[in-house]
Amino acid sequence: MASPTSAAANPKNPQGVLEYAVVPGAAAPDAKTPGCPPASEAPRTKVRRASLLAGFVIVLVLLALASLAVGSKHIDLSTVLDALLHPDGSADHAIIRDSRVPRAILGVLAGTALGIAGALVQSMTRNALAEPGILGVNAGASLAIVIAVGTFGVNGFGGYVWFAFGGAVLATGAVYLVGMAGARSSDPVRLVLAGVALGAVLSGIGTALALVHPAAFDQLRAWTIGSLEGRSADVLAPLALAVLAGVVLAAFTGRSLNALALGDDTALALGYKVGRARVLILLAVTVLAGAATAAVGAISFLGLMAPHLARRFSGPDARWMLAFTAVLAPIILLLADVLGRVLIPGELEAGVVCAFVGAPVLVMLARRRKPVAV
Questions:
Q1: What are the residue boundaries of the structural domains of the chain, listed by start?
Q2: Which residues of 252-280 are buried (b: 16+ CB within 10 A; e: fewer)?
Q3: Where do transmembrane segments lie in this chain (predicted)?
């Protein structure tokens, strides 16, 4: 959608030609309109972005295959393909199908969920440093794990993963209720402040309880690092359903994110219901981040870095940014998981490697001459 702006207020436009501001995702003005780019640029841009996105999808597939071959026991790629297409029950085929395939699927699902959740949080709050943990997701999940292990005696990942998801959901809901209490409209600043405050309280309570219960502290420490190793394949189906639901919700928020980026007043003037849009975004973040965090642990850096990297290729349109993030985030997570298997003897958790790999990338993006606005 384009709206004319005053030419008299612009000293660079003494002829009085009307200028237009274009909202991403809205109908583009006619190519003959003064001050507007040629209409042929939009199709070329879409083709370029689609080509880049397809290229990243190919990279993701190749990296997933590499994750099936690399590990404590290296397996030839031909054996990997035979295990996927013509399994014969051999030891190598069993390792690939029973251990590494679920692990690769988990990396793709969790990476996609954490990346999209981070992109939604950054766009909703218009804060380039925001990530899902800022809404209390990690703190709520960690407190629930401590309660499950220390109070109810739950042991093993398969037992406390459901507590972690419930804690993440309840914490995010509490953040929204506290942030919106007494407010006439949803305010991202209030949400961030409520999330930071409530997250600090929940983290303090969880740490105190964990110190009282040594077994809970050990479980919490293993979960907090963030890893794809040792996760049960039983969580794949629930995680896939949660990610599917969250992606569908995120897809419906694309145009709203474009409008919210211009400010609440402009979004209201364009006919968007800001409060309902933020509730829908927060619901998508809760489902995506809660499920992924419960499944793989607190890999918070991924939700911060992947959206920044995606904006280099997507431009200002939030819909393209979400699409690129959905592919780039699992690439980063799988790459960190593969590197963790080969960097040191044994295995280094993906959450640790993700920070080592992502920090230089984020520093490089921050030092660019033309930073991309959220």
A1: 56-72+101-366
A2: ebbbbbbbbbbebeebeebebebbebbeb
A3: 50-70, 104-121, 133-154, 160-179, 191-215, 235-258, 279-306, 318-336, 348-366
